[in-house]
Amino acid sequence: MSIDFDVVVIGGGPSGLSTAYFLSKYGFNVLVLERGSKLGSKNVFGGRVYSYPFDKYFPGWRDELNVERWVSHEKLITLCKEDSIELTLARGSSDKYKSFTIFLSKLLEWMGERVESEGGVIATGVKADKIIFEDNVVSGVEAGGDVIKSLYVVFAEGVNSVLAEEYKLKSKPSPDKYAVGVKEVFKVDRSKINNLFGLDNDSGVAAYILGGPLKGVRGGGFLYTMRDYISLGVVVHLNEAFEEVYPRELIEDLRLHPYMQKIFKDATLIEYSARLVSEAGLHGILEKPYGDGYLIVGDSAGYVLNTGFTVRGVDYAVLSGKYAADTIKYSHENGSRDSKFLAKYMELVKSSPIYHGLKKFKDVDKALSDRYVYSILPGILCRLFNKVYSTGEEPYKLYDSLIDSIKSESGIINLIYKLITLGRSI
Ligand SMILES: Cc1cc2nc3c(=O)[nH]c(=O)nc-3n(C[C@H](O)[C@H](O)[C@H](O)COP(=O)(O)OP(=O)(O)OC[C@H]3O[C@@H](n4cnc5c(N)ncnc54)[C@H](O)[C@@H]3O)c2cc1C
Fold first, then answer.
1. Domain boundary pick from 278, 300, 330
2. pLDDT band at 2 (very low <50, low <70, confident <90, very high)
3. Same domain for 202 and 242?
């Protein structure tokens, strides 16, 4: 057959661009198809990315990529009715550069430049509509009526893998494995951000939020500081979103809490977006993310982990792209498009931080499905802190405060059992 490209990559998110970058670097003739009008226009994420894959595989990235802020402060914020409890890890300077906040569009623009500098081609505003098979081997795509033939196709469609599912290259996952995330981005004065959180221009906050306005639903909130913007979001399990609560209303209630009003009162909303995210962890990954002539990477393959405190998705997407590129190189050197050779991809994934992380947190989906975590625990914390720091005539002893707070929300044995179960899983 006549070949237009060695590899067609469907999707210009972090996994697709990573695949394309390494393949182009290895000398393959690569085409990325991205349905968005420009890179990043269709992608949604919270705002924090871990540095390690870039440190390892993208030499010089820190000089090229203009990050928003380095995450210097990790916060766990429990919102009570009006009060709030904040637990902060202020990182020492040696740990400061291990993760950063950024707009995904900016990251993808930079990754796209890297792809093009290695000779890869990126076609934006082009949607892959069909998959072409020759002798049952995936051999290209059809896009906008054009047939594009290739030796290999990489599916990097993201969480909604419409094509891979339509052609039965992956099974349709059940809705109870997903959550929906909604995010608002506000313009906030840089000096206000710095003053509110005790930051300098370079350092930033990544926060996980639970309690109060989130109404005990299975999910949580997040907040990330950019240089002149703040992202605020909620993630709600799909079983509860739209049935019991509307994510749009939840994020509004969250924003109206006194803690958030200090930040967002008078701030200008500049963006609102929503997207699905896999919550299944290890149980959501594909057993066989490869086949004759194709590989599946990133969210499409289920490589995303919610640890209960943080989300790892972009780093896993970038890593899986590297492993896909290495696998295609290996198969090509062996003159094959056969799944026997492409199976090497799974070997690489299984010996990588992706699989190790997902395996370590293999029970996290079960632990986080317990509503106790979202409704009872925040209540206990709020009562406990209010008692310990009582401003009434008589102070309370810690032990009495603890017993009182637990008793009013839950049984003590029950709490201990829940904490042990949770502690083992997250
Ligand atoms: C609310 C929310 C918050 C998150 N927060 C974080 C975070 O803070 N940190 C983190 O690391 N991860 C986070 N994640 C997860 C992270 O966004 C994903 O893991 C990551 O974006 C996956 O990259 P990907 O390339 O696999 O998929 P995507 O980023 O979804 O990219 C897929 C691309 O494929 C394109 N596409 C799809 N079908 C076609 C087609 N037929 N033709 C052409 N193009 C197509 C899409 O337009 C899209 O650009 C979050 C996710 C959500 C929903």
1. 278
2. low
3. yes
